[in-house]
Automatic annotation (TrEMBL):
Organism: Extremus antarcticus
Superkingdom field: Eukaryota
Species lineage: Eukaryota, Fungi, Dikarya, Ascomycota, Pezizomycotina
Full protein name: Heterokaryon incompatibility domain-containing protein
Occurrences of domain Heterokaryon incompatibility (ranges): 44-277
Regions that span the bilayer: none
Length: 490
Protein backbone atom coordinates (compact mmCIF):
# COMPACT_ATOMS: atom_id res chain seq x y z
CA UNK A 1 0.00 0.00 0.00
CA UNK A 2 1.29 3.45 -0.88
CA UNK A 3 1.99 5.49 2.25
CA UNK A 4 0.10 8.72 2.90
CA UNK A 5 3.39 10.60 2.54
CA UNK A 6 4.05 9.14 -0.91
CA UNK A 7 0.53 10.20 -1.87
CA UNK A 8 1.37 13.76 -0.80
CA UNK A 9 4.96 14.44 -1.92
CA UNK A 10 6.52 17.69 -0.72
CA UNK A 11 7.90 20.10 -3.29
CA UNK A 12 10.83 22.38 -2.44
CA UNK A 13 9.96 24.61 0.48
CA UNK A 14 6.65 22.85 1.06
CA UNK A 15 5.03 21.41 4.17
CA UNK A 16 2.19 18.99 4.88
CA UNK A 17 -0.70 20.51 6.79
CA UNK A 18 -3.17 18.28 8.65
CA UNK A 19 -6.80 18.87 7.76
CA UNK A 20 -8.71 18.06 10.96
CA UNK A 21 -12.34 17.33 10.06
CA UNK A 22 -15.17 18.54 12.33
CA UNK A 23 -17.53 16.45 14.39
CA UNK A 24 -20.55 17.33 16.50
CA UNK A 25 -19.92 14.42 18.87
CA UNK A 26 -16.84 14.41 21.12
CA UNK A 27 -16.65 10.62 21.03
CA UNK A 28 -16.51 10.35 17.23
CA UNK A 29 -13.29 8.96 15.67
CA UNK A 30 -10.69 11.50 14.63
CA UNK A 31 -10.55 11.86 10.85
CA UNK A 32 -7.73 13.80 9.18
CA UNK A 33 -6.32 14.43 5.72
CA UNK A 34 -3.09 15.97 4.45
CA UNK A 35 -2.54 18.89 2.15
CA UNK A 36 0.77 20.13 0.74
CA UNK A 37 1.44 23.86 0.65
CA UNK A 38 4.11 26.55 0.95
CA UNK A 39 4.02 28.05 4.49
CA UNK A 40 2.94 31.50 3.28
CA UNK A 41 0.47 30.11 0.72
CA UNK A 42 -2.54 29.46 2.96
CA UNK A 43 -3.40 30.20 6.57
CA UNK A 44 -2.70 27.39 9.04
CA UNK A 45 -2.05 26.84 12.75
CA UNK A 46 0.85 24.96 14.35
CA UNK A 47 0.94 22.64 17.36
CA UNK A 48 3.68 22.84 20.00
CA UNK A 49 3.56 19.87 22.38
CA UNK A 50 5.49 16.93 23.83
CA UNK A 51 5.55 13.69 21.89
CA UNK A 52 5.45 11.73 25.12
CA UNK A 53 3.01 12.03 28.03
CA UNK A 54 2.38 15.42 29.65
CA UNK A 55 3.90 14.15 32.90
CA UNK A 56 6.99 12.09 33.65
CA UNK A 57 5.14 10.77 36.68
CA UNK A 58 1.79 11.25 38.32
CA UNK A 59 0.14 10.51 41.68
CA UNK A 60 -1.69 7.21 41.78
CA UNK A 61 -4.42 6.37 42.44
CA UNK A 62 -6.10 9.50 41.14
CA UNK A 63 -8.87 11.18 43.14
CA UNK A 64 -12.22 11.05 41.47
CA UNK A 65 -13.27 14.61 42.27
CA UNK A 66 -10.36 16.78 43.37
CA UNK A 67 -12.10 20.00 42.39
CA UNK A 68 -14.74 19.73 45.10
CA UNK A 69 -12.80 18.10 47.87
CA UNK A 70 -11.98 14.54 46.79
CA UNK A 71 -8.29 14.43 47.67
CA UNK A 72 -5.85 11.61 46.86
CA UNK A 73 -5.76 8.46 48.91
CA UNK A 74 -3.30 8.77 51.84
CA UNK A 75 -1.49 5.66 50.58
CA UNK A 76 -0.81 7.16 47.14
CA UNK A 77 2.56 6.70 45.47
CA UNK A 78 4.22 8.13 42.41
CA UNK A 79 4.53 5.93 39.37
CA UNK A 80 5.60 6.43 35.77
CA UNK A 81 2.88 8.16 33.79
CA UNK A 82 1.61 5.91 31.02
CA UNK A 83 -0.04 7.54 28.02
CA UNK A 84 -1.25 4.72 25.77
CA UNK A 85 -0.95 5.17 22.02
CA UNK A 86 -4.17 5.81 20.16
CA UNK A 87 -5.32 5.67 16.55
CA UNK A 88 -6.68 8.18 14.07
CA UNK A 89 -7.73 8.04 10.42
CA UNK A 90 -5.18 9.82 8.20
CA UNK A 91 -6.11 9.99 4.51
CA UNK A 92 -8.26 6.89 4.97
CA UNK A 93 -5.44 4.88 6.60
CA UNK A 94 -5.14 3.99 10.27
CA UNK A 95 -2.32 5.97 11.90
CA UNK A 96 -0.96 5.35 15.39
CA UNK A 97 -0.31 8.50 17.46
CA UNK A 98 0.70 9.16 21.06
CA UNK A 99 -1.96 9.66 23.69
CA UNK A 100 -0.96 13.28 24.20
CA UNK A 101 -1.33 14.11 20.49
CA UNK A 102 -4.66 12.27 20.41
CA UNK A 103 -5.89 14.43 23.33
CA UNK A 104 -4.71 17.58 21.54
CA UNK A 105 -6.57 16.68 18.34
CA UNK A 106 -9.70 16.00 20.37
CA UNK A 107 -9.33 19.34 22.12
CA UNK A 108 -8.85 21.38 18.95
CA UNK A 109 -11.41 19.62 16.73
CA UNK A 110 -14.27 21.96 15.86
CA UNK A 111 -17.94 21.03 15.72
CA UNK A 112 -18.75 22.68 12.39
CA UNK A 113 -15.57 23.54 10.47
CA UNK A 114 -12.23 22.05 9.53
CA UNK A 115 -8.94 23.15 11.07
CA UNK A 116 -5.62 23.34 9.25
CA UNK A 117 -2.80 22.44 11.68
CA UNK A 118 0.88 21.67 11.08
CA UNK A 119 1.96 18.79 13.36
CA UNK A 120 5.53 17.51 13.30
CA UNK A 121 4.64 13.97 14.34
CA UNK A 122 2.52 13.60 11.22
CA UNK A 123 5.45 14.33 8.91
CA UNK A 124 7.71 11.75 7.24
CA UNK A 125 10.80 10.80 9.30
CA UNK A 126 12.85 10.42 6.09
CA UNK A 127 12.42 14.14 5.40
CA UNK A 128 13.32 15.19 8.92
CA UNK A 129 16.48 17.20 8.16
CA UNK A 130 14.64 19.37 5.62
CA UNK A 131 11.70 19.93 7.95
CA UNK A 132 13.94 20.83 10.92
CA UNK A 133 15.74 23.39 8.75
CA UNK A 134 12.32 24.95 8.02
CA UNK A 135 11.00 24.90 11.61
CA UNK A 136 11.62 28.59 12.22
CA UNK A 137 9.66 29.58 9.13
CA UNK A 138 6.90 27.05 9.84
CA UNK A 139 6.16 28.41 13.32
CA UNK A 140 6.72 32.03 12.32
CA UNK A 141 4.27 31.75 9.39
CA UNK A 142 1.53 30.06 11.44
CA UNK A 143 -1.49 32.24 12.23
CA UNK A 144 -1.56 30.68 15.70
CA UNK A 145 0.77 28.42 17.68
CA UNK A 146 -1.02 26.28 20.24
CA UNK A 147 1.20 25.35 23.19
CA UNK A 148 -0.54 22.15 24.30
CA UNK A 149 0.42 21.18 27.87
CA UNK A 150 -1.92 18.19 28.05
CA UNK A 151 -5.19 17.50 29.79
CA UNK A 152 -5.77 18.81 33.28
CA UNK A 153 -4.75 16.26 35.88
CA UNK A 154 -6.44 14.77 38.89
CA UNK A 155 -4.88 17.57 40.93
CA UNK A 156 -6.81 20.13 38.84
CA UNK A 157 -3.65 22.24 38.96
CA UNK A 158 -4.34 23.75 35.52
CA UNK A 159 -7.77 24.99 36.64
CA UNK A 160 -5.98 26.64 39.57
CA UNK A 161 -2.79 27.99 37.96
CA UNK A 162 -4.13 29.52 34.73
CA UNK A 163 -6.95 31.47 36.49
CA UNK A 164 -4.35 32.48 39.12
CA UNK A 165 -2.02 33.75 36.40
CA UNK A 166 -4.92 35.61 34.78
CA UNK A 167 -5.71 37.25 38.13
CA UNK A 168 -2.07 38.37 38.45
CA UNK A 169 -2.20 39.98 34.99
CA UNK A 170 -5.45 41.79 35.83
CA UNK A 171 -4.07 43.04 39.17
CA UNK A 172 -0.66 44.22 37.94
CA UNK A 173 -0.54 47.40 40.06
CA UNK A 174 -1.71 45.74 43.27
CA UNK A 175 0.70 42.84 42.69
CA UNK A 176 3.70 45.16 42.37
CA UNK A 177 2.77 46.99 45.57
CA UNK A 178 2.23 43.69 47.40
CA UNK A 179 5.63 42.28 46.39
CA UNK A 180 7.34 45.54 47.38
CA UNK A 181 5.75 45.42 50.83
CA UNK A 182 6.72 41.77 51.27
CA UNK A 183 10.34 42.40 50.26
CA UNK A 184 10.53 45.15 52.88
CA UNK A 185 10.04 42.43 55.53
CA UNK A 186 13.18 40.56 54.56
CA UNK A 187 16.17 40.79 56.88
CA UNK A 188 19.77 40.18 55.88
CA UNK A 189 19.32 36.42 56.17
CA UNK A 190 17.23 34.19 53.94
CA UNK A 191 14.20 34.39 56.23
CA UNK A 192 11.21 36.72 56.11
CA UNK A 193 10.08 38.07 59.46
CA UNK A 194 6.33 38.55 59.96
CA UNK A 195 4.44 39.47 63.11
CA UNK A 196 1.16 37.57 63.73
CA UNK A 197 -1.00 40.52 62.62
CA UNK A 198 1.18 40.96 59.53
CA UNK A 199 0.66 37.31 58.59
CA UNK A 200 -3.11 37.84 58.61
CA UNK A 201 -2.79 40.98 56.48
CA UNK A 202 -0.44 39.21 54.06
CA UNK A 203 -2.77 36.24 53.65
CA UNK A 204 -5.79 38.50 53.12
CA UNK A 205 -4.02 40.45 50.37
CA UNK A 206 -2.93 37.18 48.76
CA UNK A 207 -6.50 35.87 48.89
CA UNK A 208 -7.82 38.98 47.12
CA UNK A 209 -5.20 38.54 44.42
CA UNK A 210 -6.15 34.90 43.85
CA UNK A 211 -9.91 35.20 43.55
CA UNK A 212 -11.06 34.13 40.09
CA UNK A 213 -14.27 34.88 38.20
CA UNK A 214 -14.05 31.54 36.38
CA UNK A 215 -16.63 29.14 37.88
CA UNK A 216 -14.56 26.17 36.62
CA UNK A 217 -11.68 27.08 38.94
CA UNK A 218 -11.16 26.06 42.59
CA UNK A 219 -10.33 29.76 43.12
CA UNK A 220 -13.82 30.86 42.00
CA UNK A 221 -14.87 33.63 44.43
CA UNK A 222 -12.93 31.82 47.16
CA UNK A 223 -15.76 29.33 47.70
CA UNK A 224 -13.70 26.12 47.80
CA UNK A 225 -12.46 24.84 51.14
CA UNK A 226 -8.70 25.03 50.66
CA UNK A 227 -7.97 23.91 54.23
CA UNK A 228 -8.71 20.27 53.43
CA UNK A 229 -6.26 20.40 50.52
CA UNK A 230 -3.52 22.24 52.42
CA UNK A 231 -3.81 19.86 55.40
CA UNK A 232 -3.44 16.91 53.05
CA UNK A 233 -0.40 18.47 51.38
CA UNK A 234 1.24 19.27 54.72
CA UNK A 235 0.70 15.71 55.89
CA UNK A 236 2.12 13.99 52.83
CA UNK A 237 4.77 16.48 51.67
CA UNK A 238 5.89 18.00 54.98
CA UNK A 239 9.51 18.88 54.28
CA UNK A 240 8.82 21.00 51.22
CA UNK A 241 5.64 22.80 52.21
CA UNK A 242 6.41 23.39 55.85
CA UNK A 243 9.23 25.53 54.50
CA UNK A 244 6.71 27.43 52.44
CA UNK A 245 5.16 29.09 55.45
CA UNK A 246 3.38 25.85 56.19
CA UNK A 247 3.35 26.46 59.92
CA UNK A 248 1.91 29.96 59.64
CA UNK A 249 0.64 30.44 56.09
CA UNK A 250 -3.01 30.25 55.10
CA UNK A 251 -4.46 27.10 53.54
CA UNK A 252 -4.93 29.05 50.32
CA UNK A 253 -1.20 29.84 50.18
CA UNK A 254 -0.26 26.18 50.45
CA UNK A 255 -2.99 25.18 47.97
CA UNK A 256 -1.83 27.61 45.26
CA UNK A 257 1.84 26.87 45.91
CA UNK A 258 1.34 23.14 45.54
CA UNK A 259 -0.75 23.58 42.40
CA UNK A 260 2.08 25.64 40.89
CA UNK A 261 4.62 22.98 41.83
CA UNK A 262 2.73 20.17 40.09
CA UNK A 263 1.76 22.32 37.11
CA UNK A 264 5.37 23.31 36.38
CA UNK A 265 6.47 19.66 36.57
CA UNK A 266 4.72 19.07 33.26
CA UNK A 267 7.08 17.70 30.63
CA UNK A 268 6.34 20.62 28.28
CA UNK A 269 8.32 23.06 30.42
CA UNK A 270 11.47 20.97 30.11
CA UNK A 271 11.24 20.22 26.37
CA UNK A 272 14.00 21.76 24.25
CA UNK A 273 12.08 22.13 20.98
CA UNK A 274 9.41 24.39 22.48
CA UNK A 275 12.06 27.06 23.07
CA UNK A 276 12.28 27.92 19.39
CA UNK A 277 8.64 27.15 18.66
CA UNK A 278 7.41 29.83 21.03
CA UNK A 279 10.29 32.16 20.18
CA UNK A 280 9.32 32.14 16.49
CA UNK A 281 5.55 32.35 17.01
CA UNK A 282 3.88 35.63 16.10
CA UNK A 283 0.91 34.67 18.27
CA UNK A 284 0.89 31.78 20.75
CA UNK A 285 -1.66 30.51 23.25
CA UNK A 286 -0.97 28.18 26.17
CA UNK A 287 -3.65 25.51 26.45
CA UNK A 288 -4.11 22.94 29.22
CA UNK A 289 -7.33 20.96 29.23
CA UNK A 290 -10.20 23.43 28.91
CA UNK A 291 -8.10 26.41 30.00
CA UNK A 292 -6.07 28.67 27.76
CA UNK A 293 -4.09 31.90 28.02
CA UNK A 294 -2.09 34.13 25.70
CA UNK A 295 1.61 33.18 25.87
CA UNK A 296 2.80 36.75 26.40
CA UNK A 297 0.47 37.17 29.38
CA UNK A 298 1.35 33.69 30.64
CA UNK A 299 5.09 34.39 30.60
CA UNK A 300 4.63 37.78 32.29
CA UNK A 301 2.40 36.26 34.98
CA UNK A 302 4.89 33.43 35.56
CA UNK A 303 7.74 35.85 36.18
CA UNK A 304 5.52 37.86 38.55
CA UNK A 305 4.42 34.69 40.35
CA UNK A 306 8.07 33.71 40.79
CA UNK A 307 8.74 36.96 42.66
CA UNK A 308 5.52 36.68 44.63
CA UNK A 309 6.04 33.09 45.75
CA UNK A 310 9.61 33.79 46.80
CA UNK A 311 8.37 36.74 48.86
CA UNK A 312 5.54 34.70 50.40
CA UNK A 313 7.85 31.87 51.38
CA UNK A 314 9.18 31.44 54.88
CA UNK A 315 12.64 31.04 53.35
CA UNK A 316 13.75 33.17 50.42
CA UNK A 317 15.80 30.43 48.74
CA UNK A 318 12.82 28.07 48.31
CA UNK A 319 12.40 27.31 44.63
CA UNK A 320 8.72 26.60 44.09
CA UNK A 321 8.65 27.71 40.46
CA UNK A 322 11.36 25.43 39.07
CA UNK A 323 14.02 26.43 36.55
CA UNK A 324 12.42 25.91 33.16
CA UNK A 325 14.66 27.35 30.42
CA UNK A 326 11.46 28.38 28.65
CA UNK A 327 11.41 31.57 30.73
CA UNK A 328 15.13 32.40 30.49
CA UNK A 329 15.92 35.84 29.10
CA UNK A 330 19.32 34.59 27.91
CA UNK A 331 17.61 32.60 25.15
CA UNK A 332 16.08 35.69 23.59
CA UNK A 333 19.25 37.74 23.40
CA UNK A 334 23.00 37.23 23.66
CA UNK A 335 26.00 39.51 23.51
CA UNK A 336 27.64 37.16 21.02
CA UNK A 337 27.48 38.20 17.36
CA UNK A 338 29.07 35.05 15.97
CA UNK A 339 26.24 32.50 15.47
CA UNK A 340 28.46 29.56 16.47
CA UNK A 341 29.44 31.15 19.78
CA UNK A 342 25.86 32.34 20.35
CA UNK A 343 24.65 28.77 19.79
CA UNK A 344 27.08 27.44 22.39
CA UNK A 345 25.99 30.11 24.90
CA UNK A 346 22.35 29.09 24.43
CA UNK A 347 23.28 25.42 24.81
CA UNK A 348 24.80 26.28 28.18
CA UNK A 349 21.78 28.37 29.17
CA UNK A 350 19.31 25.53 28.56
CA UNK A 351 21.38 22.50 29.52
CA UNK A 352 18.41 21.28 31.58
CA UNK A 353 16.05 21.17 28.60
CA UNK A 354 15.27 17.70 27.31
CA UNK A 355 14.95 16.17 23.86
CA UNK A 356 14.51 12.63 22.59
CA UNK A 357 17.28 12.74 19.98
CA UNK A 358 20.66 13.86 21.42
CA UNK A 359 21.43 15.70 18.19
CA UNK A 360 18.52 18.01 18.90
CA UNK A 361 20.55 19.44 21.78
CA UNK A 362 22.07 21.51 18.95
CA UNK A 363 19.45 21.46 16.20
CA UNK A 364 16.56 22.64 18.41
CA UNK A 365 18.36 25.96 19.01
CA UNK A 366 19.50 26.83 15.50
CA UNK A 367 16.61 29.13 14.61
CA UNK A 368 17.50 31.75 17.22
CA UNK A 369 20.14 33.14 14.85
CA UNK A 370 19.81 34.20 11.23
CA UNK A 371 21.77 32.84 9.50
CA UNK A 372 22.04 29.73 11.73
CA UNK A 373 25.38 28.40 12.92
CA UNK A 374 24.92 25.24 10.85
CA UNK A 375 22.28 23.25 8.99
CA UNK A 376 20.73 20.13 10.59
CA UNK A 377 22.12 16.87 9.29
CA UNK A 378 20.66 13.71 10.84
CA UNK A 379 23.10 11.53 8.92
CA UNK A 380 25.73 12.60 11.49
CA UNK A 381 26.00 10.65 14.73
CA UNK A 382 25.84 12.65 17.97
CA UNK A 383 29.61 12.28 18.45
CA UNK A 384 30.30 13.48 14.90
CA UNK A 385 28.07 16.49 15.56
CA UNK A 386 29.90 17.35 18.81
CA UNK A 387 33.24 17.16 17.01
CA UNK A 388 32.08 19.47 14.23
CA UNK A 389 30.84 21.94 16.83
CA UNK A 390 34.18 21.68 18.69
CA UNK A 391 36.10 22.39 15.51
CA UNK A 392 34.08 25.55 14.94
CA UNK A 393 34.43 26.73 18.54
CA UNK A 394 38.17 25.98 18.77
CA UNK A 395 38.71 28.05 15.65
CA UNK A 396 37.01 30.91 17.49
CA UNK A 397 39.26 30.74 20.56
CA UNK A 398 37.26 28.61 23.02
CA UNK A 399 39.69 25.73 23.47
CA UNK A 400 40.25 26.23 27.21
CA UNK A 401 36.59 26.37 28.13
CA UNK A 402 35.74 23.28 26.10
CA UNK A 403 38.54 21.18 27.59
CA UNK A 404 37.59 22.15 31.14
CA UNK A 405 33.92 21.38 30.43
CA UNK A 406 34.93 17.90 29.31
CA UNK A 407 37.09 17.50 32.43
CA UNK A 408 34.13 18.40 34.60
CA UNK A 409 32.13 15.52 33.08
CA UNK A 410 34.79 12.95 33.96
CA UNK A 411 33.78 13.02 37.64
CA UNK A 412 30.13 13.79 36.96
CA UNK A 413 27.53 11.44 38.52
CA UNK A 414 25.72 11.41 35.18
CA UNK A 415 26.85 8.80 32.64
CA UNK A 416 28.61 10.04 29.53
CA UNK A 417 29.64 8.34 26.29
CA UNK A 418 32.74 6.44 27.42
CA UNK A 419 33.67 5.65 23.82
CA UNK A 420 34.20 9.34 23.05
CA UNK A 421 37.62 11.02 23.39
CA UNK A 422 38.29 12.33 26.90
CA UNK A 423 38.52 15.91 25.59
CA UNK A 424 35.03 15.78 24.06
CA UNK A 425 31.99 16.79 26.13
CA UNK A 426 28.83 14.75 25.91
CA UNK A 427 26.28 17.49 25.26
CA UNK A 428 23.41 15.02 25.48
CA UNK A 429 23.71 14.93 29.28
CA UNK A 430 20.76 16.78 30.81
CA UNK A 431 21.58 18.09 34.27
CA UNK A 432 18.72 18.34 36.78
CA UNK A 433 18.13 21.85 38.06
CA UNK A 434 19.63 21.19 41.50
CA UNK A 435 22.92 19.78 40.17
CA UNK A 436 25.78 22.28 40.24
CA UNK A 437 28.00 21.83 37.21
CA UNK A 438 30.99 24.16 37.50
CA UNK A 439 30.94 26.96 34.95
CA UNK A 440 34.34 27.84 33.57
CA UNK A 441 33.17 30.91 31.70
CA UNK A 442 35.10 33.12 34.14
CA UNK A 443 38.48 32.07 32.72
CA UNK A 444 40.21 35.02 31.13
CA UNK A 445 42.86 35.21 28.45
CA UNK A 446 41.32 32.58 26.19
CA UNK A 447 43.64 31.57 23.34
CA UNK A 448 43.12 33.63 20.21
CA UNK A 449 41.44 32.24 17.13
CA UNK A 450 44.78 31.39 15.54
CA UNK A 451 45.77 28.95 18.30
CA UNK A 452 47.58 25.92 16.89
CA UNK A 453 44.94 23.34 17.81
CA UNK A 454 43.30 20.81 15.54
CA UNK A 455 41.24 17.64 15.51
CA UNK A 456 42.50 15.01 13.10
CA UNK A 457 40.56 12.30 11.27
CA UNK A 458 41.12 9.86 14.16
CA UNK A 459 39.40 12.21 16.63
CA UNK A 460 42.66 13.21 18.29
CA UNK A 461 43.02 16.74 19.60
CA UNK A 462 46.45 18.34 19.51
CA UNK A 463 47.19 21.74 21.01
CA UNK A 464 49.99 23.62 22.78
CA UNK A 465 50.51 22.92 26.48
CA UNK A 466 49.16 25.83 28.49
CA UNK A 467 49.23 26.69 32.21
CA UNK A 468 45.77 27.57 33.45
CA UNK A 469 46.77 28.51 36.98
CA UNK A 470 47.58 27.18 40.43
CA UNK A 471 45.40 24.56 42.09
CA UNK A 472 44.61 25.46 45.72
CA UNK A 473 43.09 22.87 48.08
CA UNK A 474 40.60 24.15 50.62
CA UNK A 475 38.24 22.01 52.74
CA UNK A 476 38.66 19.13 50.34
CA UNK A 477 37.93 21.23 47.26
CA UNK A 478 40.43 21.79 44.48
CA UNK A 479 40.10 25.41 43.35
CA UNK A 480 41.68 26.57 40.11
CA UNK A 481 43.49 29.96 40.13
CA UNK A 482 45.46 31.92 39.15
CA UNK A 483 43.60 34.25 41.51
CA UNK A 484 41.37 32.64 44.13
CA UNK A 485 38.72 34.90 45.60
CA UNK A 486 39.03 35.37 49.33
CA UNK A 487 35.30 34.67 49.59
CA UNK A 488 35.99 31.12 48.44
CA UNK A 489 38.68 30.55 51.07
CA UNK A 490 36.58 31.71 54.01
Amino acid sequence: MTSVYEQHPIRDGGIRVVILHPSAQAGDPLECDLEVQIPDEKEYEALSYTWGPPYHEQPSPEPSDFHYGGYPDPDFKYEAYQSPNRYISLCGQTKQVTGNLFDALKRFRQRDRTRRIWIDALEDDLERSKQVAMMANIYHSASMVWAWLGEDSAWCEASTVLPFYRALVDAEHELGSFIQDLEAKADNSLVYRFQPDEVAQRDDRFRRLCVSNDPRSPLFKDEVDHKAASDWFRQHTPQKWNRFGGQEGSPLTVFVCTSLFFFLKRAYFGRRWVLQELHQAQHAVVCCGEFEMDWTDFRSAHLSATLLMRSMAAERDLNVMGNSPLFADSLQSTSQTDPVVALYERMRACSKAECHDPRDVVYALLSFDDPPAMLPDYTLSPRQLWIELYRALIARGHLTRLILKAADQVDSPFPRDTQSPSWLSDFSITYPWHYFAFDYAYIENEPSGDVEARIDDKERLSCPLRCLGEVVFHNGWAVLGPEVSQDVLK
